[in-house]
Amino acid sequence: MKVRVHVMLKAGVLDPQGEAVRHALGALGFEGVSGVRQGKVIELDLADGTPDSTITEMCEKLLANTVIESYRFETV
Amino acid sequence: MKVRVHVMLKAGVLDPQGEAVRHALGALGFEGVSGVRQGKVIELDLADGTPDSTITEMCEKLLANTVIESYRFETV
C-alpha cells in the first residue's frame, strides 16, 4: 500500500523557505502572491494492511517534528 | 485562492533523502517499508482568478526543476 504523508510547519512558525519563494515569484514578475508556505511530502510503500496507528507512530517518531510541524496522511 | 503544488523527483532519479528516511524507519524497528520518496509541497495564496497557465509558469520557472522533478497542482 502507498501512503502519502504531508508535513507542514504549524501556523505561526516562521517559514524562511516559503518566504524566499514568495520573494522570488515577485522578482520574476508574478503578482498577487500573498503568501507561500513550503512543506514536505513523503510517499511510503508499506506492507499491505499496515494500521493507521503504525503510520501515526512513524510520523510522530521520525517524519514530523511535532513541536513545530503538523502532519496528515492519506492512503493513495 | 489557495493552490497546493506537489513537486516530486521523477522515477529513476536517485532520492538520497527518501533513502535516508527508509533506512531510519528500519532502524526504528518499522518493518515492511519497501520504498520512500520525499518531495516538496508548496502552498500558494494567489489572487482569485489566477489562471492555471500562470501557475504552470510559476512551476516551470521556479518551483520545480523539470529536468529531474515532476509537479502537479490543485486548488484547495
Automatic annotation (TrEMBL), chains A, B:
Listed pathway(s): Purine metabolism; IMP biosynthesis via de novo pathway; 5-amino-1-(5-phospho-D-ribosyl)imidazole from N(2)-formyl-N(1)-(5-phospho-D-ribosyl)glycinamide: step 1/2
Localization recorded for this chain is: Cytoplasm
* Enzyme Commission number: 6.3.5.3
Entry GO MF terms:
ATP binding; phosphoribosylformylglycinamidine synthase activity
Q: What is its main location?
A: cytoplasm
Q: Which UniProt keywords apply?
A: ATP-binding, Cytoplasm, Ligase, Nucleotide-binding, Purine biosynthesis
Q: Please provide, in alphabetical order, the Gene Ontology terms of the cellular component aspect for this entry.
A: cytoplasm
Primary enzyme class: ligase
One GO biological process this protein is involved in is: 'de novo' IMP biosynthetic process
Reactions that this protein is recorded to catalyse: N(2)-formyl-N(1)-(5-phospho-beta-D-ribosyl)glycinamide + L-glutamine + ATP + H2O = 2-formamido-N(1)-(5-O-phospho-beta-D-ribosyl)acetamidine + L-glutamate + ADP + phosphate + H(+)
Q: What does this protein do?
A: Part of the phosphoribosylformylglycinamidine synthase complex involved in the purines biosynthetic pathway. Catalyzes the ATP-dependent conversion of formylglycinamide ribonucleotide (FGAR) and glutamine to yield formylglycinamidine ribonucleotide (FGAM) and glutamate. The FGAM synthase complex is composed of three subunits. PurQ produces an ammonia molecule by converting glutamine to glutamate. PurL transfers the ammonia molecule to FGAR to form FGAM in an ATP-dependent manner.
HAMAP family listed in its UniProt record: PurS (MF_01926)
Q: How does it assemble?
A: Part of the FGAM synthase complex composed of 1 PurL, 1 PurQ and 2 PurS subunits.
Q: Which family does it belong to?
A: Belongs to the PurS family.
Q: What is this protein called?
A: Phosphoribosylformylglycinamidine synthase subunit PurS
